[in-house]
Amino acid sequence: MLLTKSCIYALRSSVYLANQEAECYVTIKELSDELKISFHFLTKVLQQLTKQEILKSYQGPNGGVKLAKDASEITFLDIVQSVDGSHVISECALGLPGCGELAPCPLHEHWSGLKTGLKDMMESVTIAELAAKRNIHLHSENADEARKKQDFFEIN
Asked: Is 76 part of any domain?
């Protein structure tokens, strides 16, 4: 899979938050418990999203996190680039430095078209669309196990 565990958790958290009332902050503990993600690991992921202004955070007794803007304005690509960076869809598939049109690697011709399609898909899919699917696997205790058995990020 192209996406790191941090990115997958960021996507799952964003989808969860999109399904909450817009004005309400959700505690990191609630997110951690509901999504079955380590509290400390999730805290670091959410800090990245807050730093990139995908989330707003509020400290204190009623503190937590919420989406910084409407879920329809946040794309799959926004989350990926906030957590994993833009290199995920721009680097050589083999990780070779200098790979490009002038000095292509053996996979360049194939990967070039795929990454364009992948980027287009990530730009067009919003967190609101993902949230509307209400995927049962997002909240599954076995979400990580189910993900390991899949060969791709399944949206349905």
From this structure: yes
